[in-house]
Recover the amino acids of this structure.
């Protein structure tokens, strides 16, 4: 099996050298890892046929692998959904400032691991955080509180449309969106089924959103809900809103319950929110 792998890899190297390209990557743009809030890619590079020494061949293969990883990161980051209507690529087209920041974020990617490939090549795995105060996708495309165009005081959460009895003691919110096709976004909005937003970035300190995001996404209700604390309020989404299918919609009854309990426990202000996909 190992010999077959080496022969196959050697054939790919030969083809790459023939067409004058040192990159070996055949990977499509990587999907963001929303559970760990990172974008991670693996670049591959071939040793050029005209290398003078083994050390030079290794160095040039690594350089090609890094370049390939940068290319993959650029494609992956462009496809990230900022909100339910907008991707990073849309924002880059509209703003040269954001384009510059995104490019700087890509160049600041961290090398997670690297190794030589049997048969003569190199592999480099690189990573960029989705959220974080510095060198993250969020810090490149979202506006911090120091920007004069951002209100210094976030909007208050809306009042419940109907007064409902409160329980108190809830540590967070879990919205079960399974079966509805929810797509992760950096800036989700929770709405009631009349279309009224009850939770969004306008209600929050923008620096907190950049640093840690507004919600966690998980498929696993046993291990992926720590953000919602030990006693979360759990509701079921009734639909998904937005062209990019990023906004959970809950019933008006559940929306009133969420807002009532938040007035007591303030879990929304603390972004203790989890979406189950």
């Amino acid at each position: 099996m190992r010999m077959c792998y080496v022969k196959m890899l050697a054939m790919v190297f030969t083809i790459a050298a023939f067409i004058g390209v040192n990159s070996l990557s055949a990977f499509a743009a990587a999907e963001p890892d929303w559970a760990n809030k990172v974008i991670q890619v693996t670049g591959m590079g071939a040793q050029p046929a005209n290398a003078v020494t083994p050390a030079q061949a290794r160095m040039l293969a690594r350089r090609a692998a890094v370049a390939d990883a940068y290319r993959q990161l650029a494609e992956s980051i462009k496809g990230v959904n900022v909100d339910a209507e907008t991707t990073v690529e849309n924002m880059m087209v509209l703003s040269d400032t954001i384009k510059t920041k995104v490019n700087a974020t890509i160049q600041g990617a961290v090398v997670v691991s690297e190794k030589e490939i049997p048969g003569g090549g190199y592999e480099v795995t690189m990573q960029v955080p989705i959220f974080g105060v510095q060198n993250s996708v969020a810090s490149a495309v979202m506006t911090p509180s120091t920007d004069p165009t951002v209100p210094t005081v976030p909007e208050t959460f809306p009042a419940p449309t109907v007064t409902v009895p409160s329980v108190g003691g809830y540590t967070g919110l879990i919205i079960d969106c399974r079966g509805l096709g929810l797509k992760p976004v950096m800036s989700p909005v929770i709405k009631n089924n009349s279309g009224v937003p009850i939770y969004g970035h306008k209600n929050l300190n923008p620096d907190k959103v950049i640093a840690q995001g507004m919600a966690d996404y998980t498929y696993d209700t046993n291990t992926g809900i720590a953000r919602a604390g030990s006693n979360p309020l759990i509701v079921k989404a009734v639909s998904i809103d937005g062209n990019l299918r990023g906004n959970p919609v809950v019933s008006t009854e559940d929306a009133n319950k969420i807002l009532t309990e938040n007035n007591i426990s303030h879990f929304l202000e603390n972004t203790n929110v989890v979406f189950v996909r």
